[in-house]
Amino acid sequence: MTQTSTKPNNTQCLVAGGVAGIAVDTALFPLDTIKTRLQAKAGFMASGGFRGIYSGLSSAIIGSSPGAAMFFLTYEQVKAACEQRVAPEYQSFAYMAAASAGEIAACLVRVPTEVLKQRLQANHHRSLGAAIRGTYAAEGLLGFYRGYLTQVVREIPFTCIQFPVYEYLKHSYAMKHGRVIKSWEAAVCGSVAGGAAAAFTTPLDVVKTRVMLSTKGVGAHHEYSGVVSTLTRIAREEGVRALFSGVIPRTIWISVGGFVFLGSYEKAKEFLVEGKIFAHR
């Protein structure tokens, strides 16, 4: 069973995804800042501590709506195509493929804003304009995609855990109660799925943070490149425990974020479909 009786069209997926992206990034930005500073090489207090926890919010908002919209548009389309070709007992693989495709597409939009956001959160720059100029001056346009592959490598395992669990919980709950699942119930499913995925993939998130905070040829930040080399270097120099830096705020952030993000998406999608808004576009 799904949240709505009619499948959303492309425009409705885009709009619902955009609403969900802005909702979760705005509501939970302080936790994301704390997590980033805990993972920074310079350390939590040197990166700003609890000061300016909304640094980088403008960059996050700019990227959140189109990034989430791109994800859900791709996810819904690939999921629908896979569900028609995959036996029921293998539906989890369809959800993995759809979520992975969605993340690859979304990262094309998300990574540049993520690079700027994290550099502002770690106090590498004082303003969004300064972050844009500094990144471009040091590395050119490719600097805005620093860590793209790292982000994709992090997001695919995360999403391959989150979305099969999310879809399974929604389906099981709907079957148990014999009715269409409500948006707040889908939000709870999203919270559980997101928290589990967050805890398991924290080492990859630490790697992503270190790579994105690195700036080519600039002092102490010229340190990290590549997923495997960064993983092994952190483990060797700082111990395995460092790979789980920020695991508690990350798990809390994404658990709450899963509730807000997926709940907002389901509610917005339901509202658009039932209200026949953008129904002919």
Radius of gyration: 19 Å
Q: Can you tell me the overall shape?
A: globular
Please summarize the sheet with the most strands.
none
The level of helicity is over 70%
Give the N-terminus to C-terminus distance in angstroms: 25 Å
Task: Explain what you see.
The protein is mainly alpha-helical and 281 residues long. The chain is built from 9 helices and no strands. Helix 3 (91-121) crosses helix 4 (128-139), helix 3 packs across helix 5 (148-177) and helix 7 packs across helix 8. It is globular, with a radius of gyration of 19 Å. It starts with 9 loop residues before the first helix and ends in a 7-residue tail after the last helix. 50% of the residues are buried. Residues 1-5 have low confidence and may be disordered.
List the helices and strands and how they pair.
Layout: H1 10-39, H2 57-83, H3 91-121, H4 128-139, H5 148-177, H6 183-200, H7 202-213, H8 227-238, H9 247-274
